[in-house]
Amino acid sequence: MEWMRPFGGDKDEEVSSVISVGDGYVVAGSSYSFIDGVKMVYLAKFHPQGRLLWERVFGSAYLWSSGCKVQRTLDGGLIIGASVLNVPLSERHFYLIKTDPRGVL
């Protein structure tokens, strides 16, 4: 083992996908830590030695979301497959979230 470190907030966190991007690792999953009681898509990039470089969340107070899979795109960006529950309507949907290499929409 080279290193092991805990990440995330103080609520439930889940990782669904990890990819190597040459200059580190990108993780996709879900987090309850950014809006209390709301599950959001979580995306983060880590240095090869495990240092957090950046993190992003996507979603809203009315959509419970979880990132299922992350892949690199041909233009160097990222695409995340996400499962979303519209809480007021009890409807489930699937979304694709496309970002630049820094996780910015």
- Given helix and strand content, the structural type is mainly beta
Largest sheet: 4 strands, antiparallel
- Quaternary structure classification: single chain
Mean pLDDT, all residues: 90
Number of strands: 7
Regions with pLDDT < 50 over 5+ consecutive residues? none
Structure description:
The protein is an all-beta fold. The termini are far apart. The chain has strands at 13-20, 25-35, 38-46, 52-58, 63-72, 78-86, 91-99. It has one domain (13-99). The protein has a 4-stranded antiparallel sheet with strand order 1-2-3-4, with no helix packed on it. Strands 5-6-7 form a 3-stranded antiparallel sheet, with no helix packed on it. It has no helices and 7 strands. The model has no long low-confidence stretch (mean pLDDT 90).
